[in-house]
Amino acid sequence: MRRLPVYFLIDTSGSMYGEPIQALNNALSGMINTLRADAQALDSLWLSMVTFDREVKEIVSLTELASFQLPEITCPQSGPTHTGQALEMLYEKVQADVIKGNPNQKGDWKPLLFLFTDGKPSDLQLYREMIPKIKSLNFGAIVGCAAGHSANDALLKELTPDVVHLDTADSSTLKQFFKWVSETIEQGNKSQGTGESVALPPPPNEITVVI
Amino acid sequence: MFETKQYIESLLHENNINVLSIRQKLFEEYVNDEFNIEAVKLIKEKQKIMMDKWLLKNKIEDILAKQIIIPNATVGKPYQAILDFNQPDLQDISGFEFENLTQYGLNFDSELKIIEGNPSQSGDFKVKMKFSVLGEEENTEPHEKWLSLVINANPKSLWKNIASDEGKDEDWKANNFWKADNVSDFQPIGDKHIVVASKRGRSHANVGSFRDDDFGFKHYEDNGWSVVCVADGAGSAKLARQGSKIACDAVIEYFTANLNDENLTAFDELLLDHHHKKGEDTQKKISHFVYNNLSKAAFYAHHKIEEFATKAESSLKDFHSTLIFALFKKYDFGYAILTFGVGDCPIGLLNKDLTNIKLMNWLDVGEFGGGTRFITMPEIFNSDKFSTRFGFTLIEDFSYLMLMTDGIYDAKFVVEANLEKLEKWKDFVEDLQGDNEDKVAVSLDASNNEIANQLSTWMDFWSSGNHDDRTLAIIF
């Protein structure tokens, strides 16, 4: 059976402390419930979540949606944003997790990546070093999401052409965003030409596509 | 009574009262006094109780704070989860039970510490666990802890079946290149028969979108040739349903117009020579013929789609479709079978007594699911591999010639390598004849009036994760 592996990289640095992280937890939980009610997702979706602040943690390793349990995401009160390190971990995980097809083995759908951040990488050099490596993994789509005024759209643009901006990280905006994420995921398992990428659905009003 | 003495000594000492040495004898008598012995014993007992109670309270708090995970369940899928309490913080649980599990179709076996049953309703639930802790007095009210229990819906129940033309009129259908969600046919084709069915996949039915697969076939009475084509529009291309339709129509149109010249007579003679091993380079000449004629048909299909796309002011990519077709004709010495394929749809030829399978084409499959090539891609015609897209065989007789889309192949053959295994094809034929979960059979007999419906019904088979459109053409 073909799996659709989806990776979430979530910024849990100090600036997310308090209400934003609460809103994020609620929005993620809503997204999981939406996906659980989707026949296609329940049949093929596998999820992995990595959080990054000073430390990078794989809080859930690649798990099929049917068995997935969302842990409470917490964050420290202050500290740097190690986005580069998170990409480094992601690079290893994707290489180990994703099954490539050959005549004797069914390949996964191209994996999808959602990177959510409200700041900019503190480890900029590593972040930039990792970008070509991440691109070489052949993701079906990489969606960068910059939340709030301190998030740096331009740096995300270096990683992916698909960057969206949320003005605030409040509960209703995040809910809209993750609803759109689940719609994007539902696009992920369709046949496409070799080398083509997944088309993103139009985002809701709360989300600005960064051009 | 050393304990009593020690206790009273430290009590007096804590209160700065000294026992004078001349009173030592009196003190000895005092500590041996029955009342004092009893009193110290009682005090010590009470202290121990107080300490134990405090430790107990801590243990209970630890258990309440600890995240206890119950694995997710799925409606209709027998469930069994062993709760592992052999871990720090949980080892002190002496007994526990669950209060409201039965409403979800589950039971708790307290001896084996197993939750089991047949989950009956889906949702995100909280279940109440009542537990007691080692060291508690008997008859203590059990403590309560709420645990999360996720029961997934039965995946089968989540699929909706929304007609692609629900509430739409004829104009809408014409403007949107509508095609029927579900079609099947049964016809004679030359001295053989063809049964074919094409069915919209659950992933499309779920959202009311169109069937992207298509097929076409025709027998040319005047020259004895027959053609069968199958095409699979790409799920990611928005007008793929029209791409697959044009591809099939174009191939049939091409051969209708081009299978009538003298070059066919020459080919008939060439085959005869080849069969009798007469003449020179017959194999090479046959290859030339196959290449020349079939490549023109394939290119004609490409061209027709391109023409349509330009007219519709759409991108050619929007019409992405795979295409396979087989051309065959009966001769005195057997059948000549010519094929072409681009994409991930196989053409299989089973000999008369089912002892040999010939896979007529190779599949364009990539490292990742869904990555394939289409008749709409101009680069396939310039590729070095283009000439390998053609197949030819002469066979005395055959039991089945099958053309299918990946909706069938992914579910029934799983991987490419299996398409070359005779056993897998035999299993496939048996599956068609009823050896399957639902015991749905297609009686592959030309006198069977119900054959097209049977094939269509068979195509409803359930295969987890495989919900693409399904098309299967069987010539027999």
UniProtKB/TrEMBL annotation, chain A:
Question: Cross-referenced InterPro entries, in alphabetical order?
Answer: Tellurite-R_TerY, VWF_A, vWFA_dom_sf
Can you give the residue ranges of the VWFA domain?
5-181
Species lineage: Bacteria, Pseudomonadati, Bacteroidota, Sphingobacteriia, Sphingobacteriales
Query: What name appears for this protein in its UniProt entry?
Result: VWA domain-containing protein
Task: Spell out the Pfam families in the cross-references.
Answer: VWA
Q: Which SUPFAM superfamilies match?
A: vWA-like
TrEMBL record, chain B:
Every PPM-type phosphatase domain range:
204-475
InterPro entries registered for this protein in UniProt = PPM-type-like_dom_sf (IPR036457), PPM-type_phosphatase-like_dom (IPR001932)
A UniProt-annotated Pfam family:
PP2C_2
Q: What is this protein called?
A: Protein phosphatase 2C domain-containing protein
